[in-house]
Every structure is written in C-alpha cells, then in structure tokens.
Amino acid sequence: GDSVTQMEGPVTLSEEAFLTINCTYTATGYPSLFWYVQYPGEGLQLLLKATKADDKGSNKGFEATYRKETTSFHLEKGSVQVSDSAVYFCALSDLPGTASKLTFGTGTRLQVTL
Amino acid sequence: KAGVTQTPRYLIKTRGQQVTLSCSPISGHRSVSWYQQTPGQGLQFLFEYFSETQRNKGNFPGRFSGRQFSNSRSEMNVSTLELGDSALYLCASSRTSGGTDTQYFGPGTRLTVL
Q: Is residue A29 within 8 Å of A93, Cβ to Cβ?
C-alpha cells in the first residue's frame, strides 16, 4: 500500500538556521501531498499542500515542492524561529486529487533554540 | 468560528470494556474522519463519514465502528477494548468528501486502557 517516509528526529537547530525535513512517498497513483504541524498540546494543523507534480506549496515561510521523479516532498524554511518548534508530519491522500484518507509519516520533531 | 471539538478529552477504561468518543465538526462541514495516533504506529486512518454514510475505511478490526448523525456530529465506538487500543484518537472535519478541502483536526481524545 501507499506509505510515507520521513527523516528521523529530533532535529535541533539554532534560530535563523535553514531547515530541511525530508519526505519521500510510495504510491500507486498520483497522490495529493501535505505537511501538517502539531504544536505542543494542540491538534494537527495543515501547513501546506500540493496536489500535482511540480506544484509548490508554501505558508508561513515554509515551502515544499511535489517532485514526482524523486517521489519526494521535502519541507524547507530559510530561517527558523523558536516558535517553529513542533512536530511536522508529511502525509499523502490515498485518493488522488483529494484530501481524504490521509496516510501519515511518523513525524519529525523540530526543536529550535536561541 | 468554532473549531472541531472532541469529547471527552481524556478517558480511562479497562480491558474488555467498550468506549464511545464524540466529535462535533466545524459548522457547515459534512465530512468527518477519524484517526488513531500511537507512538508505535503513528497516525492511522480509521474511517470517514459523509452525509451519515461511511465513505472510506482503514485497516482496523471490526471492533472499531462509527456513525454520523444528521447534524454531521460523529461518534466512534470501540468494543472489547485491548491494551493496544490506548492512543490519541483524532477527528478531522472538512466541507466535503472526495475533494481537496482542507481537513481540520480536533485536539483529540486520549484513551488509556488498563
């Protein structure tokens, strides 16, 4: 079945450092791809999404590009802040073109220090 | 507008018992999905309901069931609880099913099975 693989955490960075969290997927079709973020004590929030190859999702300074050739959707941010400390989940929709029935990666914890 | 609400937030049960969790979607949202989050298995899709009908189902045993009411509120039931059912159960709502509408997650119900 479909699956999502994320880099192991935790990732510890100093404020203003560059962030990359790797995400690769396995899917039979052309899934929609998502990044969700979970702040301490809160539920999941959609960070960004891309629904077709070469789409770039962006939000709050975070970006990710849907790369069909490498089946990847890596999350990047040019300058992280302490407030970005959270767990980040890469996900895909098993139903192409939709945001339903999400398959999630294991999550990557990001810790940003001053 | 109010977000997705889940009740109760915390629950402790013993093996063999059954439990019912409730989810109230965002006003106007007709699709409700349920996910199980555990340290070992991560986030896994349970099922999705739309207009009182189950639209999609994950790979969970029949002990896990759900339903949706005419006001879009949803309940999830787990019968004959096992220790491995201890998890954070997340509910997510979206306006429609099968589209690219964003899923909005609730804070979850933490179930502990003793």
A: no
Nearest CA in chain B to A91: B43
Q: Taking chain A, what is the end-to-end CA distance rounded to the nearest angstrom?
A: 41
Count contacts between A and B (CB, < 8 Å). 63
Per residue in B66-98, pLDDT tens?
Answer: 999 999 999 999 999 999 999 999 999 998 776
- Rounded Cα distance, A108 and B15, in Å: 32
Query: Pairing mode, if any, of strands A23-26 and A3-6?
Result: antiparallel
Span A53-77, pLDDT tens digits: 999 999 999 999 999 999 999 999 9
**How many Å apart are CA A93 and CA A105, to the nearest integer?**
12
C-alpha span between A103 and A92 (Å, rounded): 5
Q: B6, B38, B43: best mutation site toward chain A, by most A Cβ within 10 Å?
A: B43
